[in-house]
Amino acid sequence: xxxxxxxxxxxxxxxxxxxxxxxxxxxxxxxxxxxxxxxxxxxxxxxxxxxxxxxxxxxxxxxxxxxxxxxxxxxxxxxxxxxxxxxxxxxxxxxxxxxxxxxxxxxxxxxxxxxxxxxxxxxxxxxxxxxxxxxxxxxxxxxxxxxxxxxxxxxxxxxxxxxxxxxxxxxxxxxxxxxxxxxxxxxxxxxxxxxxxxxxxxxxxxxxxxxxxxxxxxxxxxxxxxxxxxxxxxxxxxxxxxxxxxxxxxxxxxxxxxxxxxxxxxxxxxxxxxxxxxxxxxxxxxxxxxxxxxxxxxxxxxxxxxxxxxxxxxxxxxxxxxxxxxxxxxxxxxxxxxxxxxxxxxxxxxxxxxxxxxxxxxxxxxxxxxxxxxxxxxxxxxxxxxxxxxxxxxxxxxxxxxxxxxxxxxxxxxxxxxxxxxxxxxxxxxxxxxxxxxx
RNA sequence: GACCCCAUCAUCUAGAGGCCUAGGAUACCAGGUUUUCAUCCUGGACACACGGGUUCGAAUCCCGUUGGGGUCGCCA
Length: 439
Hints:
mainly alpha, Rossmann fold, 4 domains, 18 helices, about 45% helix, about 10% strand, RNA-binding
């Protein structure tokens, strides 16, 4: 029997990180087993289930690389099947009609629990059981004639031939109901794997208040899907050895449900950041450049004279300083605009200091005389000048860096000067002199 | 409250009775490399919630306590 798993989100306009992790685990499991991974949109809540909300789910899946093997099933289209199942249960005497005083006018259809103790083996939590007296009959069709989640869910899982249900452990208590429904409908029961929640520092379910909580936010903040994927895979699961940095393929090869932890885990955004840097550094040049360009476009820092070649040189110079695509705008905007911001502390320390203006003027003259203006020649000129003045190179290096980039951090100064080019460098030094060095 | 689940460094985790004076990673601290920053390298501090058992031997098994979480809808 080939394994089939599914991700069954209800489209609410955003995809929670905990949900996408469930999808990641389902996908990983299906791929590892050579099975299928399916998508079912639980869009029965017509208020919230707008086409845009559905689009958000699809986008998140695509961005994360969670490919599914069949066309998505839209639960709203399946209402007749759900109702038919209820009729069948009614006919078999496994359900009954009753007015439980609900919202609707008439009677609801209530499913009769078997009245026996129940047990099942959860792939991550182990053996779980529940006593008959702790389980009550429950409504499967509302008095207004619409099917309830439990019914729809089970009927659709049967229809889709789902063999393994991988979902959040807030569903464990529902499992007994679902199991009973599978049996009542004469279908083979699937296996279940309940994943622990992702929690915040307070032990509560991780939410928007705790930082980025939705897939789209991570994307917008510049995280790489492969980094988030890698991170999420390791949040609650481990390969059993010391590997941490893993590609999608390695994860597929290593993933098994029995290595999923059953205790909840907390997001560590710092670790995600680190992992993002790791994946960033492993990216092919063209991908890196394309990602940076997209950010620049979004921040209105693109296009720029020199175009793609220029961008390539900036990216090359920034090197492993880019932990996020957004860093190209957050930490290297001075390559793309004259409107770069001056860091106040850096200005005070390096430009408003006694002697800084004098040093800058002297250096500016030397730089102006350079014919090939590149990393080598600028470095030579600077060092020669420093020696003549009987000072360390730092006395010159720091002020220029701040004058030219506004910041005291950044790539190798001389490569930066080369990329910026003589004209811009001289103009920036002059402007900085005017602006800050009122010596 | 009832029922269920969970419990190793700050965080993610390895650990399925002796290999554990508990390993790795992030974060943190200290040094080195880089006259900056980042990367990288080296070192450091940091944990088996508690109490009882079982056993020659327990982070690992059992019971209890404590702490946390989930579920108790004609929501999904």
